[in-house]
């Protein structure tokens, strides 16, 4: 059907024609303006403003206490302490306390800042026209004036209680990061200089978990041993075996070149640390004919017939030797601890 066939009363009405359309009406981009500003209770009642100030200061103070609790938790709780906390179950006391206190410290700073902004800072909406990116001297002056107005309206200078507690909370929170530096390395103690070996500790075969006897070690063999009493399911097994692991080798006494090595051995059975003195890798490659052991990580090579001195590679010093003997039951035993720290050389020189 063409337009000529449509009744006139059904044709669309053009805007601005005599059919009654209002020219310019219904502009979808008209500026609606800003709603009328409604003052808050804190704007008209100084007592309410003071209550808000105390609430903000209280949150900042709690944040400071939470930070102190974070530092105290780091000192009080041992790493291996497990506690039951409903509904989380069995968790690390240290990790739970650190997460809880640091989370509270950061949350309370944020909550205090939000409450401060919503109740005490100016909430008057200001419309500003867009301007060119380049800042003119007039714009710079306006920015500085706006900053001064914002600082004045924030009441930072007048609300000294909020200002002081906020500075205190912000100053204490970074201390949490300083305390975390403790995890970069062990505290200056002697625990890395000592192992579980002591006079009378029997040598236990790590494969059979039975005490070693001299007749169990044949010439040319390599056996790995650990201290008596160390259990594989113990929570500190890995940290202890990393220092106390032994290599047991039997060499013909006449083939031992080093005098001290011969004196610290038992019928040619020598015990050396299994931990490489380069970066602490476990040594396990033994060459029977030359009595050399090779570290698989960086190829440091030690001569076990000559005091385990370094003959090749980046290792800094010989493998520590453990003085051994035989007890009344006929089992091999340690006659003391290592005389020098095991592992990388920096522990010995530190």
What's this entry about, in short?
The protein has 350 residues and is α+β, with helices and mostly antiparallel strands. Helix content is 34%, strand content 14%.
Structure in words:
The protein is α+β, with helices and mostly antiparallel strands and 350 residues long. The chain contains 9 helices and 13 strands. The chain has helices at residues 41-44, 46-76, 93-119, 137-153, 160-172, 174-180, 237-244, 259-264, 345-349; strands at 82-85, 89-92, 203-205, 222-227, 246-250, 269-273, 285-287, 292-294, 301-303, 309-312, 321-322, 324-326, 332-334. Strand 9 and strand 10 form a beta hairpin. Helix 2 (46-76) runs antiparallel to helix 3 (93-119) and helix 2 (46-76) runs parallel beside helix 5. Residues 14-22 have low confidence and may be disordered.
Write a concise keyword list for the protein shown above:
single chain; alpha+beta; five-stranded antiparallel β-sheet; four-stranded antiparallel β-sheet; 13 strands; 14% strand
């Amino acid at each position: 059907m063409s337009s000529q066939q449509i009744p006139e009363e059904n044709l669309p009405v053009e805007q601005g024609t005599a059919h009654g359309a209002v020219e310019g009406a219904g502009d979808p981009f008209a500026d609606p303006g800003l709603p009328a500003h409604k003052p808050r209770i804190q704007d008209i009642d100084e007592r309410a403003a003071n209550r808000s100030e105390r609430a903000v200061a209280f949150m900042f103070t709690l944040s400071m206490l939470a930070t102190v609790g974070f530092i105290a938790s780091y000192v009080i709780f041992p790493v291996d302490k497990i506690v039951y906390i409903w509904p989380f179950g069995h968790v690390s006391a240290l990790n739970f306390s650190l997460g809880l206190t640091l989370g509270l410290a950061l949350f309370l700073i944020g909550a205090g800042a939000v409450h401060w902004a919503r109740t005490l800072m100016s909430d008057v909406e200001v419309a500003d026209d867009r301007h060119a990116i380049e800042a003119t001297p007039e714009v710079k002056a306006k920015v500085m004036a706006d900053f001064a107005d914002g600082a004045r309206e924030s009441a930072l200078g007048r609300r000294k209680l909020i200002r002081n507690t906020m500075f205190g909370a912000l100053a204490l929170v970074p201390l949490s990061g300083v305390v975390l530096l403790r995890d970069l390395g062990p505290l200056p103690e002697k625990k890395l200089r000592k192992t579980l070996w002591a006079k009378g500790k029997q040598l236990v075969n790590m494969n059979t978990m039975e005490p070693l006897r001299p007749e169990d070690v044949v010439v040319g063999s390599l056996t790995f041993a650990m201290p008596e009493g160390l259990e594989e399911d113990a929570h500190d097994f890995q940290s202890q075996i990393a220092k106390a692991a032994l290599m047991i080798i039997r060499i013909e006494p006449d083939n031992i070149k080093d005098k001290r090595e011969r004196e610290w051995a038992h019928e040619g059975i020598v015990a050396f640390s299994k931990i490489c003195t380069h970066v602490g890798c476990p040594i396990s490659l033994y060459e029977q004919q030359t009595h050399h052991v090779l570290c698989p990580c960086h190829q440091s090579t030690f001569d076990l017939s000559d005091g385990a001195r370094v003959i090749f590679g980046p290792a800094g010093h010989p493998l520590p030797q453990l003085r051994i003997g035989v007890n009344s039951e006929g089992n091999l035993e340690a006659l003391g601890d290592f005389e020098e720290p095991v592992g990388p050389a920096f522990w010995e020189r530190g």
